[in-house]
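Record Kinesin motor domain-containing protein, 857 aa.
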Amino acid sequence: MSTSGHMSHCFPFNFTRRGHMMQHRCMATASTPTPLAAAKTMFISQSTVRLPDRVFDPECSTRQVYDEGAKEVALSVLSGINSSIFAYGQTSSGKTYTMVGITEHSMAEIYAYIDQHADREFILKFSAMEIYNEAVMDLLSSDATPLRLLDDPEKGTVVEKLTEETLRDKGHLLELLAVCEAQRQIGETALNETSSRSHQILRLTVESSAKQFLGKGNSSTLQACVNFVDLAGSERASQTAASGMRLKEGSHINKSLLTLGKVIRQLSGGRNGHIPYRDSKLTRILQSSLGGNARTAIICTMSPAHCHVEQSRNTLLFANCAKNVVTNAQVNVVMSDKALVKHLQRELTRLENELKFPGSASLSTHAEVLKEKDEQIKKLEEQLKELMEEKDTVQSELENFRKVASDDHLNCLKARRWVLALSYTYDLVDQDLLIDAQPGLFPRRPSNHVFDSIDECQENLVAYPDVPDVSDEHCKEVQCVETNGLRERISQESFHAQKPETPEKERRPMMDQAEDCTDEEKRDESITKTAENAIELYACDSDPSFEIEKPNVDEEPLALKRCVVSSRDTVLARSSSCKASFMVIPNSWFDDSTSMNMTTPPSENFKFPPRRPEKVRRNLFPEKVASDAITDNSTGNAEEESAADDTSRVTEVKQQTEQNDASQPQENRAQAGTDSSTSTTFESPSRWSFDFPKKQQEIIELWHECHISIVHRTYFFLLFNGDHTDHIYMEVEHRRLSFIKSSSIADGEPNATVASSLKSLRNERDMLYRHMVRKLSGAEKESLYSKWGIDRSSKQRRLQLSRLIWTQTDMEHVRESAELVSKMVQHLERGQAIKEMFGLSFSLNLRSGRSFSWGGA
Ligand SMILES: Nc1ncnc2c1ncn2[C@@H]1O[C@H](COP(=O)(O)OP(=O)(O)OP(=O)(O)O)[C@@H](O)[C@H]1O
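=>
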């Protein structure tokens, strides 16, 4: 590239077009109107690969520099992309020499391209200007008047009145180039005898259209310009020995080059802040080429002379910044009105489609949206299923309520029967005994008879006309039995003594008392007798061994006393009515709303083994039984054997009791006899702490076998935790459960009681299932699912959980179940319940406030 020998290197730096389409309104044309000036210009994005930066050695020809560093940029103009090629460097480093060669090669190739593309019509325009001492001069005009720079909103900076020649051919261009060269300010300096004293800008505008569309109104035209810029060289006055005019020129040159350096530096830093295009005419005119819609190549020239090392360094610094500048070159398409309308219509359709389907730009997006919707549908289906399950449960409950409501009358009648049983000695104790005592007074009924239906009950009432009808008010009497019956203690002797001899006229007032609910005392008196006896009978029948442990029955507290039976007490034996009184032990300590088992008639809850009352009677009244055996031959040998067994068992129990009393430490007995409050502790605390786990486990197993209410189990389990005063309650519970168990399978197979209990359990589980939603947090539920082996993805996991509660008898499961239920049941916290309610609550509780409610239910 060197011609004079003192220039050796050339650095072409290409400004690279990046980014995408920008609606850059720019017409890089002169002020002279062109045939396409009225048309609209569109900018179309085009991906362009950034050219590599190159360093050329002194021996490189200008052709090589052009080919490898400037050609692609220069020829971009044929594709509708603006381009610029700069030469930057110190004075006399070969800028002008290089740019002349680059311009010629470019022009030659442009014309060669035009020649090769006959299908397109090209229009080439040429303009030239120089900036001399900060004045813009038209190089194609003889007028030396400086031109003004105008800011056009569409075209950017425009040089006013700049001559733009439409080229006829290549020769015409060469002529104009010659004119420019002639017009340009050149001066002699110490470094260059033909030193350029101005910045020269040669501009070639190329417009091309496909010939086939020309004149049809729908053609589009590519329009772009290429600038060949030969900058004046930076110089030092000391080196150029400039003075006077040359010094002034040098000052302007340096000033404008300084601004160019600032702009390049600013642009290379990412366009942050103000870019001082307007600080010089050079940067103002080249604004679009430096940081706008153009591809740009900068050729930096340096002198190898050692004395120019500082200038060379500055040139390299400039080049280093320039290579980082990024421009936004676009393909400039000028469209006719018709073509523009067509294009805009297409664009409108596209935008409408985007509006119709927002966010659905791609198939992948569609798939994602569909997947999301599917998941939402699945969740909703799951929720719907759970809601349907809840609805079914509630419906079934509603049906139960309705049934209960419709059976209300039935229940009252059943309660009436029970009250009758309580009120009349005829049926209170054992009709067999009464009949035996006063034969003929009452018609005989099967000793173990249990009413199976209300019809039978009514028939029975008809069959016993002496028994007055009891109003529905007696339904309330049932409650009295529970609330008051246990408070009073009636002498067994007086009760027993009055019972057989009570004449009908004496019994009648008792009946009146039962009917008169306004007189509570009288009612209590008549009913509580039977209630107490019922309790005693219960204890009697459950486990004789319990009696053995009792050191002093007379001194036992009331609660205990009612659970302990002496051989004398058992004379009351059981009757169907007695059995009723504690057959209605609530299987479910449950909400009133679910207490259908509460309304279950006592006689339907449990049924005695058919032969059992007879056996008890035989044991207790062997003489009477013997006489009965004479008059009633219906009893067989088996019964006699059984009676003998029972008799021997009672005898054995008595013997054991005596032995136990004898072996009991004196101090214990003394204490038991003097301190009734502590006499409930049958065993020493140390022994009880040893026996408690065993007893507790037995009770748990009995709960399981007897299908006892979950809430009851939970309540009991949480309340009684090994304290020595718990002994009595646990003993009572144990006996109660033992009795229920033996009664429920008395016939060798489960009776209706089991089904009823199971139904109650199911209802409880349903309630648990519903309450889990509100009472348990998501984390708690998740933890339980995993702990109890429930598949967390299962749709019925909550239902499964409710079905697993209290289904095992191992202590860990029991404890977890109790904790879980306590969370869901109101008033189940420790301390809110009283232990006493477990000791003697054996009577019917139709509307008792003691029933536990579900929180929020
Ligand atoms: N590659 C080259 N081969 C041969 N001669 C060259 C070459 N480059 C430059 N010259 C000669 O060097 C001299 C200075 O070159 P040129 O005028 O191009 O420098 P310049 O950088 O334009 O100087 P200024 O900034 O002062 O205008 C000219 O006589 C030119 O012919």
